């Protein structure tokens, strides 16, 4: 097996970056993730460049910013012309296997309006081969449950209700009704082991997706009681809903619109109404779901160890986006706060064993994952890719021209479960924001709403908007110009390096030889 190069890309859902023990979350027990951090490089300042799931995964797997791939919401199609990681891997001889989902809506020009994929919140991205489907509508998982002999309730999602007829929907210390051996995390793990055991000694690429710690926030036994609510970090939020909502109209909308039912089966009321006790319990359950995933990863890692493949395999651990988890009185992945955008990135590169355990502080983005994998496998990074390979960082060398700030976007146009446009008086193409952020400052630009500006040195949790403060006027201007320049420099450029000349077509990326 010497010289073989395999890639295991682990993509969890809704795992925020500050729930990583290697980065300080000492309350969390994840021995297998800890091992990965010890043997790889952990990137402290890593963000997804878009939320929610569909846009985030589109950026992760195409290497493009939201402004270029334009799959701006889960329900918005991804243009079929875009090259993605799956298609690129096929060009270099890999069969890109996928377990889980990508939350991709197909290009309507490539199919018809009656395509059933348009009735779901996303399906599989073209280019990958599914070896453990979850979408559409979790049919793959529910079918597996039935095949295992589990009797599904009439309303299938009732398996995630708390155990017991007297259970009250909402944040709970009770386990869910499905046993851990039949959980969705176990399902994905079984699919992964089945795939890997069938590959023999052939090189492979596997996108191993997990749905958790995505809601509903209810864990299987014994994970439901693994953590005590009182040991969880307290939420970071303003003293009242009114104080929080006063910061910005968009924040005010979400504080009013987000419902608990999106996070707890059959729960009632607004997410912003959760009290500190309920938030602590929710966080304990969230941590339990993470430990369950970690145990599942332990089974996959053990198989790679047993078969001698661990040493030949690049392992990447990341998430599609984060989770507010009660911070700023919010639930979910929305808006502009760090909790929604900061996510884990851990890379174990067999070529850099001497770097194991290191934490890198460079600014990295989800669009960097695709070019990193392609470079490691010897492929060509597409000209229009907005990301950069982080292999130099993983090797301990930061390029002189590495990015000086983070950038990310959120398009908050109407979707079937939320309609901010009417409330905020916006057209759908005005319902967007972009963030540029470095160690010192954070600027949030809206297409048609007032901007935000935060002094991160004095206000790291972003409570005081200084956009209209005369003392910061010059800095607001500078960061706004930085945002504009960034967008201009990353405008779609698939063909812009070609030009016609009197001598024929010229590729400006290919050096010309002197006559």
From TrEMBL:
InterPro entries per record: Alkaline_phosphatase_core_sf, HdlasePehA, Sulfatase_N
Sulfatase N-terminal domain: residues covered: 5-378
Pfam families named among the record's database cross-references: Sulfatase (PF00884)
Keyword Metal-binding: yes
An MF annotation (GO) of this entry: sulfuric ester hydrolase activity
Keyword Metal-binding: yes
Coiled-coil spans in chain: none
Name of the protein in its database record: Alkaline phosphatase family protein
GO cellular-component term (any): cytoplasm
Keywords in alphabetical order: Hydrolase, Metal-binding
């Amino acid at each position: 097996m010497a010289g073989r190069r395999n890639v295991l890309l682990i993509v969890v859902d809704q795992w925020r970056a500050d729930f990583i023990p290697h980065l300080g979350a000492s309350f969390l027990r994840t021995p297998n993730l800890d091992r990965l951090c010890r043997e790889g490089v952990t990137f402290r300042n890593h963000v997804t460049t878009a939320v929610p799931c569909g846009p985030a995964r589109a950026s992760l797997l195409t290497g493009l910013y939201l402004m270029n791939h334009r799959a701006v919401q889960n329900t918005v199609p991804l243009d079929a012309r875009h090259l993605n990681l799956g298609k690129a891997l096929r060009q270099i001889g890999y069969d890109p296997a996928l377990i889980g989902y990508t939350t991709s809506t197909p290009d309507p020009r490539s199919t018809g309006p009656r395509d059933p994929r348009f009735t779901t919140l996303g399906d599989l991205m073209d280019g990958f081969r599914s070896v453990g489907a979850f979408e559409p509508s979790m049919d793959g998982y529910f079918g597996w449950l039935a095949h295992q002999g589990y009797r599904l309730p009439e309303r299938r999602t009732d398996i995630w209700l708390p155990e017991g007829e007297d259970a009250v929907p909402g944040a709970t210390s009770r386990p869910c009704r499905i046993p851990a051996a039949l959980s969705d995390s176990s399902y994905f793990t079984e699919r992964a082991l089945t795939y890997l055991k069938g590959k023999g000694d052939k090189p492979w690429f596997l996108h191993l997706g997990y749905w958790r710690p995505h809601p509903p926030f209810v864990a299987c036994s014994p994970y439901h009681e693994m953590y005590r609510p009182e040991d969880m970090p307290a939420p970071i939020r303003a003293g009242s809903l009114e104080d929080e909502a006063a910061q910005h109209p968009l924040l005010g909308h979400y504080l009013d619109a987000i419902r608990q039912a999106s996070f707890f089966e059959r729960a009632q009321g607004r997410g912003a109404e959760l009290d500190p006790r309920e938030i602590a319990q929710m966080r304990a359950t969230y941590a339990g779901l993470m430990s369950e995933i970690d145990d599942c990863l332990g089974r996959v890692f053990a198989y790679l160890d047993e078969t001698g493949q661990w040493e030949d395999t690049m392992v990447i651990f990341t998430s599609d986006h984060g989770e507010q988890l009660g911070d700023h009185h919010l639930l979910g992945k929305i808006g502009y706060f760090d909790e929604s955008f900061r996510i884990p990135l851990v890379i174990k590169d067999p070529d850099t064993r001497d770097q194991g355990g290191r934490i890198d502080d460079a600014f990295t983005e989800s669009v960097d994952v695709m070019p990193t994998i392609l470079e490691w496998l010897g492929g060509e990074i597409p000209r229009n890719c907005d990301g950069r390979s982080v292999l130099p960082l993983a090797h301990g060398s930061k390029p002189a021209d590495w990015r000086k700030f983070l950038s990310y976007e959120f398009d908050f146009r109407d979707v079937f479960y939320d309609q901010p446009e009417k409330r905020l008086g916006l057209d759908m193409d005005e319902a967007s924001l972009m963030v540029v952020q470095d160690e010192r400052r954070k600027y949030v630009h809206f297409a048609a709403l007032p901007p935000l500006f935060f002094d991160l040195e004095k206000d790291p949790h972003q409570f005081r908007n200084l956009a209209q403060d005369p003392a910061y006027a010059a800095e607001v201007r500078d960061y706004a110009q930085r945002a504009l320049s960034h967008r201009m420099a990353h405008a779609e450029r698939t063909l812009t390096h070609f030009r016609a000349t009197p001598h024929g077509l010229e590729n400006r990326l290919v050096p010309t030889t002197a006559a």
